[in-house]
Design brief:
Length: about 240
């Protein structure tokens, strides 16, 4: 499984928002910088499935631009969009508010899948979801194929259920925002989650721009290693 980071940043930092590709086919999160990053790779037409952990702008507001750009670039094939409840209204409202467009202006169909705690199989991948406490309805996702397992937390504080979802993950991509926020995880919590779930590798993302990263990482590596802090266009194979 090939994971390509398009960004790993938080909502208002100086890096592109958290977003990554699985095998250049599955797009995870579509924030404000995602279209630009996909265009740099020249692969916007290749995306078959989009997953949005929740509908905060830094995770979802790139969607209308993604849809219209894909159409303009010649996409004809249906796209599947997996996201929490409300995704259909979100697509319609965001297309209208951003560009005064509707779905009928696109050259392809959109199939939406409202996620809950469920199992879905698409393109040989198995997807599992677990709700994670955040200020917006949000889900963690597990993606497995050919015995390899990737887990991404989305935004929020890890729970026993999300730790269970991440059990023995080959790669855990965890939100690590900052200490002291009720609706977010932190560098220390992400390290604990990786240890408790017996993950093989931890990638910390969505770190608050004002967090003291060095100091917290010194503590975190005593709890779990290896830890990486991915940057845009980093690639990890699992
Ligand atoms: Zn959020
Ligand atoms: Zn966020």
């Amino acid at each position: 499984m090939k994971i390509t980071f398009l960004g790993a940043g938080e909502a208002w930092g100086n890096e592109p928002n958290i977003s990554f590709l699985v095998d250049n086919k599955i797009l995870i999160e579509c924030g404000m910088h995602t279209v630009l990053q996909l265009q740099k790779l020249g692969i916007i037409k290749n995306i078959k499935v989009v997953y949005l952990s929740h509908l905060h702008a830094d995770h979802a507001l790139g969607l209308p631009a993604f849809l219209l750009c894909s159409s303009e670039e010649g996409r004809g094939e249906e796209i599947k969009i997996m996201a929490p409840r409300g995704i259909d209204k979100y697509i319609d409202d965001s297309l209208r508010i951003s560009y005064n467009k509707e779905r009928k202006n696109l050259n392809f169909e959109i199939k939406t899948i409202e996620i809950k705690e469920m199992e879905i199989k698409i393109e040989g991948y198995k997807f599992l979801f677990s709700k994670i406490p955040h200020s917006f309805p949000c889900y963690s996702i597990s993606i497995t194929k050919n015995g390899k397992k990737l887990v991404y937390t989305g935004d929020g504080q890890p729970t026993n259920e999300t730790i269970k979802l991440a059990k023995n993950a080959d790669l855990l991509i965890a939100e690590a925002y900052a200490e002291g926020f009720e609706n977010h995880s932190s560098i220390i919590r992400a390290a604990r989650m990786a240890k408790e779930s017996n993950a093989k590798l931890l990638a910390m993302v969505h770190i608050f721009r004002k967090e003291n990263v060095e100091e917290k990482l010194r503590e975190a590596v005593k709890i779990f290693s290896p830890i990486i802090l991915p940057k845009e266009f980093d690639v990890i194979w699992i």
